[in-house]
Amino acid sequence: MRLASIKYGGEVAAIITKEGLLPVRAFKDSGMNFAENLFSLISTEQLEELQGWWEAESRDNFSYWTRYIVPFDKVVYAPLYRHPRKIWGIGLNYMEHAKDLHENTPKTEPASFMKPDTSIIGHGDFIEIPIQSQRTTAEAELGVIIKKRCYGIGEKEVGEYIAGYTTIIDMTAEDILMQNPRYLTRSKSFNTFFSFGPHFVTPDEIDDLFNLKVATVINGRVHRENIIGNMTFRPETLVAFHSQVMTLLPGDIISTGTPGAVAISEGDVVECHIEGFTPLVNPVRDLKIQK
Asked: Which of 60, 93, 113, 273 is the 20 to 30 Å CA partner of 211?
């Protein structure tokens, strides 16, 4: 199943169909009281129920629901949700990206950091280069979204705890980071520094996760690309590792690392392309110019 959050009398979850997006709230007409936003669908563990019900409805009664569909050209996307309990980021998870920063790829444990939910934006929203930074970079990444509470799990157990995947663009005020590695949190935490969506894809929709290609795209040009299988620490390792540190909760996000970051400027358009996903696209504005 593929879902999104759209602006439709508020920010609501919608199922992606071939004709457009179908708001989940429409199902109340049939007595199905599913949560209306994606975070609640995940945190109340309704995703599987919704998926099973919709598979039957779309097969038997799809024509009935077409009256509620929002055409693709009328859709305004929102972030998938705005208040996850945790956002984990992973640094230097591809060797090529580590070389860009003149760093060595961590070999024994992931290099992770956390981001605040105030950094969240969605598809089409502006990335804002902060006044404090002369060099901000953007990087495309695969996002893993946690399905249910877990602590201390092993890699073989991870599959049952993954709700789905999404596209992410993560930003860094690189010049601030270069001053001192202890400035990592500040360099990653400015407003608009974490874009995710527009689509959420459940694991059954993905045939071969490790062969998916992730690309950072700037102004229509591929800057850097690589496959998930070339990560130093693959998604299942990242989930298991961080569950050993703290309890992971429904809706928590792990952004798995980028094949390459690109410096961004006023007027640029940055995209995250992952095979099988609708691209995540964000324009850029520089607050130093906007003043």
From this structure: 113
